[in-house]
Amino acid sequence: MQQNKWMCNGIVENGQQHPNQELQGIYKPYNNYGNDCVISHLTQEQVVGDASKSPFKASAISLLAGILAASGVGCRAVVSSSSPNPSASASASPSKETGNQCSTDKLVKKSGNLFGAIEVGGKGVKGKVIQELATLNEDGAKLVVFRKEKIEDRNVNAPNPDSKLAAVKAVKSTFQDIQKRFNISCEQIVIYGSSGFVQDAPAPHREVIAQEVRQATGRTMKFITSEEEASFGFDGVVPAWRLNETIVVDIGSSNTKGAYLDSNNKHITFSFPFGTGRFTREVKKSQGNIDFTKAAENLKQKKLIPQIASEVQLKPGMQTLPRVYLAGGISWALSTLTRPCSKKVYTVAGKNQERLDSFVPISSEDIKTFYYNATQDKKALFNPDLSNCSTERREEVQKDIAKIQTGTFSEDELIAGSEILRAFNQELNWSGKQVFFVPSAKDALPIGYLQQQLKKVEEDADQ
């Protein structure tokens, strides 16, 4: 049996989270992670982990587990023994294969300060571990992505019905990864489908995926609209003193969405049914006998420009606001391949304060260079000047370039994505404006969605 472990700021040495107990202990913390170190008692996994090896041990440990559960000490998951529980219902709890049972399919704030968020998107499944801080940080945020360890992205074409099994497996693997590595209770994990997934996946497929995800994890998979996603993105990256002067444009794989605030501080959102991947597919359908580059330009003029211009007529702030924040995969590629040695940290003067923000400045000339290299000079595209990079930054950029070149985007997708950027640059008059790529925008959706769900928990508790 394992010894009790101290917990500091929610994390012990092995990277796992344990419940905050108000009991004192005699063991020294493994590492000095902070001053709020308390002892963490045995989880039920530790109690019943070897139960199947001996009938006597199984009985004795089951009794001990029951005592612990009754006293409220650290019982966060039930590990299945060799005998199945015939009374367990798939609709009320996860599949037995997960080895866990959720008391409810709703989000529940239990002990500990870490939550899991799993996104099923147009190009794969992503997992994040999000930490709830005791107080607001310097940016006024209560929820931040926990970065000590990264959850592996699972590349799978989730919207395709033929990839159903692979998609569910990817969600389940991510779910179990979050549970095992961080010891996060299943009731503190949320699962959602992005607006890109919703747009590309047929309705019957969405229903089947949601059902099978619930069976595999015990959690309800909810679907997010493009309007919600745009609002989450705006709230997650725009500083308080920039709210009335900034527009966010997020170019995803399946769609492009964004938001700004009107004079009444109301979110004005917009969405277009084209993203890098979807536009690439549309170009190929219309290509005929001409090359992809020319076909992409033709389709941009025929479809993208008119759609953007029409939306601007209804929502003039898209064109008039002086500050633009870019997000999404193709914007990341643009930044990496044209501004690779940017330090990313700039002092931004606020009305009442200053803050260090992770913003990469982008110019209209950068977009032109990106398009030219994507269409005319692939060697230059993947070999940007790294002479001004620090050693650490150079290694990071080289890894990112390899991802862009071999995994994240095809050559056609880079061309299609650069055409989308050119269309917005033209129609929203980015020339002369302050345009930035915001790396942290990739965390805005999971944080925004979790924040929404936690707010609902608080509202339900007040009723």
TrEMBL record:
Region annotation (Disordered) ranges: 83-103
Listed InterPro entries: Ppx_GppA_N
Extent of the signal sequence: none
The Ppx/GppA phosphatase N-terminal domain, residue ranges: 184-295
Highest taxon listed in the record's lineage: Bacteria
UniProt biased composition (Low complexity): 83-95
Protein name, as recorded: Ppx/GppA phosphatase N-terminal domain-containing protein
Organism: Tolypothrix tenuis PCC 7101
Organism placement in taxonomy: Bacteria, Bacillati, Cyanobacteriota, Cyanophyceae, Nostocales
